[in-house]
Amino acid sequence: MTTPMSPRLVRGGFAQVQPSTGRVLRVIPFQYNADSVTRTLTPRGAGTEGGDRLEALRLAGPPQETIRCDVELDATDFLEFPDQNAGVAENGLHAALALIELLVSPRSQDLVAENAMAMAGTIEIAPAEAPLTVLVLGRNRVLPVRITELSVAEEGFDTALNPIRARLSLSMRTLTVDDLGYAHRGGLLSLARLRQAERFAASVPGATLGALGLSAIEGGA
């Protein structure tokens, strides 16, 4: 039970942003925060493995970061008050699932427009640009991402076979200036995140080699 002394819980989620203007098009908060988040960073070296020795210590750009997490949806809380949550009472979690699923799908009107152009022989080579997807995990993690995989496990249903419990497994890749450029809004978010990491690292008190059991690092024979 929430009391006046209870801390306000910050929920993670997604925001869709119009890249050209920065206008927030939609906010999708998680019903429950993920219990765990797995992050994998793959450095981008300037040379290939076993290549030029002069490139061994050079970094070509920001690391490729992948993020994985599971998100749970449960209609039980809403179904306790069906009059106040008529949409959930009638359709279960279909609307909540659709919000996430549409993050990885083009709009139907764009598909229809592209098909009309193809039929007329005037199709554009590049598909329409989708809104920028931003993963928000608290104010210290605001990340432009591309969802690379979405797995939905529907684990409970009502009498009309509407899903009422579901678990979403999300795999994402963080977008950087290498993907979007330095003038793109997502690229600016990526740079802001890198600068923030540098500030966090700079706030850690320095240590000496003695903490590692060494007095010096020597390369002599």
Can you describe what's shown?
By secondary structure, this protein is of the alpha+beta class. The chain has one domain. It has six helices and seven strands, in the order ββββααααβββαα. It has helices at residues 76-79, 86-91, 94-101, 108-119, 177-180, 185-202; strands spanning 13-17, 24-29, 37-45, 59-74, 132-136, 142-157, 163-174. Strand 1 and strand 2 (24-29) form a beta hairpin.
Described by the principal axes of the CA atoms, the overall outline is: globular
Q: What's the order of the H and E elements? A: EEEEHHHHEEEHH
Structural class: alpha+beta
What's the helix count?
6
The end-to-end span amounts to 66 Å
Report the uncertain regions.
none
Beta content comes to 25-35%
Largest beta-sheet details: 7 strands, antiparallel
Percent of residues in helices comes to 10-25%
Strands across the major sheet, in which order? Answer: 2-1-5-6-7-4-3
**How many β strands by DSSP?**
7
Number of domains: 1
Question: Main traits of this protein?
Answer:
221 residues; alpha+beta; 6 helices
Chain-wise SSE layout:
Blueprint lengths: L12 E5 L6 E6 L7 E9 L13 E16 L1 H4 L6 H6 L2 H8 L6 H12 L12 E5 L5 E16 L5 E12 L2 H4 L4 H18 L19
Antiparallel strand pairs: 1-2, 1-5, 3-4, 4-7, 5-6, 6-7
